[in-house]
Amino acid sequence: TISFIGSDKNAGKTTALNFVYQKLKKENLSLKGNRNKGNSNKTNNNVVITSVGINGEEFDNYESSKQYKYLKPEITIYNNDLFITASYHLEQLNGHYQILHIFDRPKFNKPLVLGRMLFDSKLILEGPNEKNELLEVKKYLLNIENITLNQLHFFLIDGSIDRQFLAHPQVSDYFFFSLLLCNRPQQINKAKNLLAPLSFAILFTGQGLKNARPTINALLTAPHRLESEL
Length: 230
What we know:
Elements: E1 2-6, H1 13-26, E2 47-51, E3 54-55, E4 76-77, E5 82-86, E6 97-103, E7 112-117, E8 121-122, E9 125-126, H2 131-141, H3 145-148, E10 154-158, E11 174-178, H4 185-195, H5 216-221, H6 223-229
């Protein structure tokens, strides 16, 4: 299971997910980054994709206004891969997918469709929104071979704003963190709390930087200065 988390909205989570997904499919990479043997144009990686919150829409409905429309990266689910999303996002895709299972109440806040894509198709993802819902999904996916007759290799979860519970080891084996340099104290503090256990001091030995020891804390508390220097 791989999650994509960000320090704020529009930090680059979906862009990172699309990059990893395409690498897994088109370059047939293994989890360790090595290419699997055989034809690189044909992958053996079977993938399930979902999202906490809404991702894959063309425009950002939260940030956009009547005057300005902010584009967002769309998500294409490849043929034979699986997805989990709310049923109303499938209304324009009749004939493009096969329903495998419905996650429904009382364990889920709204009905969610687990489906297999029959043709490469763009899809808006809106999946489990709470940790307990994701754990229920993962438990079900452990037995998914009984339905798909194929082994599942990767479960990709696109994040929403700063839903950092995705980094919990019960949820994810790995996670990508997208850092947006911003001025919002609440988001900065949440990012610091998540990254602090992973941070370490770095000693620069280049000219003029011999005694500089920047840390994640420094990065997150001085975004404008660092942004101008990078």
